[in-house]
Design brief:
Radius of gyration: 25 Å
Structural class: mainly alpha
Order of helices and strands: H
Number of strands: 0
Number of helices: 1
Distance between the termini: 85 Å
Strand content: under 5%
């Protein structure tokens, strides 16, 4: 059994960076979900507007 005790206390910057990038990924996921939802809402509204325009136009 060889002793491999690597104490990464000087690696705090790396772990902080990893945590930051994970947070950024989470934020991006939430943003993508929000944008996707917004696109769906806009497309539904556009569709309804087109349908309304056609039905009113008749």
């Amino acid at each position: 059994m060889s002793e491999h005790h690597h104490h990464h206390h000087h690696m705090d910057g790396a772990s902080k960076f990893k945590h930051k990038s994970l947070l950024a990924i989470e934020r991006k996921k939430k943003l993508m979900k929000f944008l996707f939802f917004t696109l769906i809402v806009i497309s539904i509204l556009l569709f309804m507007a087109v349908v309304a325009a056609f039905t009113i136009g008749d």
